[in-house]
Structure formats: structure tokens, C-alpha cells
Amino acid sequence: MIEKLIPELRRRGYRVATIKHNIHGFDIDHEGKDSWRHKEAGARLTVIASPHRIAVIEDVSKDYELSELRDRYIRDVDIILSEGFKGNPHPKIEVVRSGMKHDPICSAEDNLMAVASDHPVDRGVPCLDIDDIHGVANLIEDKFLRERLRS
């Protein structure tokens, strides 16, 4: 859903950032590359830069909260869309598909603002069709973006 929301929000003129949380870890650096060798030699932080893209590979001592990542790395955007971070206090839209092997995770008490699903889901918040990207973007725009642009 995020992959469809990004171009819709960009089409509306908004600058979008994303943060993906992976509890299991990840690696964007590859063995044998210069940046990998720099990290293996003991660099705590490595920046890979080109004329079109920058990546930061940093050793950290904890799992950062969404707000900490925002403050540390995100600039010049109107909205941050995230995936994961289920236990944070920020507003959420939970994606619920009929083939999922678990029940919905969030409730209104978890700051759930909507559910996007391929079937009706009653969580005490609006349930939008998972394919209605325009409707999901309208909800996000009405709740967060229009007010900020007026400020």
C-alpha cells in the first residue's frame, strides 16, 4: 500500500519519506565492496555518496524509535510513512488482508485511525478498501497534511 500511496501523495505535491522497520536486521552493504571493508576495519559510520543518492551505514547500540529516526535522519519532507513500528504512539493505518494468518494487531487505543482491507473489518475506526489509494490518501491529507500547510 505504501508503494501506491507515495506516488499519489507526490502527485498531490507532497514530499514523502518512508521508514521501514525490520526487527530481524538487514544489510545493504555487500562483502568485498569498499564501504563494507571500511566497516569491517572498524568505522562506526560510513557514508556512500553519489551525485544522485546517499546512504548512511551506522552501527547503533539500540533499536531507535520512529521519532528518534525522524529527528536524526529526516529533513525537508511533508510526511513520513512507516512500516512496522507497531508499538509506537503514532497514528496508524493497519493493513488487513483476508489471507493473513493473524488477527488485526491494533485498536483505537493504539492510535489506530483506519484499517485498509480487502474485506470488512470492525476495529472501531473507518475501514477503507485496500485498493482505494485515493481514499487512503484523502484520509491522510485531511488528517495531517492540509492543516500543516495552513500553519
Précis, in short:
The chain has 151 residues and is α/β, with parallel strands linked by helices.
Which SSEs are present, and which pair or pack?
Layout: H1 2-11, E1 16-20, H2 34-40, E2 45-49, E3 54-58, H3 66-73, E4 79-83, E5 92-96, E6 112-117, E7 127-129, H4 133-150
Parallel strand pairs: 1-4, 5-6, 6-7
Antiparallel strand pairs: 2-3
Helix pairs in contact: 1-4
Overview of the structural elements:
The protein is of the alpha/beta class and 151 residues long. The chain has 4 helices and 7 strands; from the N terminus they run αβαββαββββα. It has 2 domains: 2-23 and 63-150, P-loop containing nucleotide triphosphate hydrolases (Rossmann fold, 3-Layer(aba) Sandwich), CATH 3.40.50; 27-61, no CATH class. The protein has helices at 2-11, 34-40, 66-73, 133-150; strands spanning 16-20, 45-49, 54-58, 79-83, 92-96, 112-117, 127-129. A hairpin with a 4-residue loop joins strand 2 and strand 3. Helix 1 (2-11) packs across helix 4. The longest helix is centred in the C-terminal third of the chain and has 18 residues, at 133-150. The model has no long low-confidence stretch (mean pLDDT 88).
